[in-house]
Design goal:
Layout lengths: L5 E5 L7 E2 L15 E7 L2 E7 H12 L3 E5 L5 H5 L10 E4 L4 E4 L2 E2 L1 H14 L3 H11 L5 E7 L3 E6 L7 H10 L4 E6 L2 E6 L4 H12 L3 E5 L6 H6 L2 E4 L4 H4 L7 E3 L6 H16 L5
Helix pairs in contact: 1-9
Length: 278
């Protein structure tokens, strides 16, 4: 069985789990589903899945045919707040590929290799944050943060944020080896070589899996979806809004928290077939 296992790499936020704000993505005419909290922050429930998705997640995590790998831009601390149903995943990818967790601990050899790649190919994080501070307007910039000393993200007031500002920043960042992604109220500035797909390839090598399934909703998931054998994209999110597509990526119509159920059922369907995806 080990030689036939499938690696399942899925983004978390707005793909499998949903904040209270993201719950509003669903069709308001649909009945509200029963929810289970999977994350608490400062004593309050922070992220949710439907009860059905919780059952599907637990089954997926325990399935001997699969290696389930949460694959997130969250920092390690933010990821470890999440308690997904089922047994703890043996691998997880945090900081957009900057940290590969093995049984909950960061693999230092992987992290060193990532650092070396970024130092060789990209402008420094200090240069990027200095540019942001020079050009951002306090009227719409709510918070500025760095994550794991690898990338930056801003919390912005979307109504006040000028449409041109992210585009101008992206045009400046691209020749310096960085990318810009706007997801809800967060704007990420990430080194281009810092990718989820590279870390997933490393997990596939270690686990000896024969195929990869993936799901994600944002521009930072695009490389992950492209590298998979078969992938799914929700009907909401940055990729859907931009009309992003690829031949082996299923474009779902589902929006909101119920989309997590659809994605998990799709994973299970491929596992049940025990045949390589097209």
């Amino acid at each position: 069985m080990s030689g036939d296992r499938t690696l399942i790499a899925s983004d978390l936020d707005r793909t499998l789990i949903y904040s209270a704000g993201a719950l509003a993505l669903a069709d308001p005419d649909h009945a509200a589903p029963r929810l289970l909290s999977v994350e608490t922050y400062q004593g309050r429930p922070q992220s949710f899945v439907t009860e059905t998705a919780a059952t599907l997640l637990a089954a997926l995590a325990a399935d001997p045919r699969a290696v389930f790998v949460p694959t997130t831009t969250r920092t390690r601390q933010q990821y470890l707040r999440v308690r997904l149903p089922g047994p703890p995943p043996p691998y997880a990818i945090c900081a957009n590929g900057g940290h590969l967790l093995v049984d909950g601990e960061s693999d230092e050899s992987w992290h060193r290799s990532v650092r070396a790649r970024l130092a060789a190919d990209c402008a420094t994080l200090d240069e990027v944050t200095a540019r942001v501070r020079r050009t951002a307007d306090p009227s719409w910039l709510l918070r500025e943060r760095t994550a794991e000393d690898l990338f930056a993200y801003l919390v912005v007031d979307r109504e006040r944020l000028p449409d041109a500002w992210p585009k101008t920043l992206a045009a400046w960042a691209e020749p310096r080896g960085w990318t810009v992604s706007l997801q809800g109220r967060k704007l990420y500035v990430v080194p281009a070589p810092l990718t989820k797909s590279a870390a997933v390839a490393e997990v596939a090598r270690r686990a000896g899996t024969v195929r990869t399934l993936a799901a994600g909703d944002s521009l930072l998931d695009a490389d992950l979806l492209l590298a998979a054998d078969l992938a799914w994209r929700p009907g909401h999110g940055e990729l859907a809004a931009g009309g992003w597509s690829a031949g082996h990526v299923v474009e779902l119509a589902d929006r909101g928290v119920g989309c997590g159920e659809t994605i998990l059922r799709a994973f299970q369907s491929v596992l049940a077939s025990q045949a390589p995806p097209p």
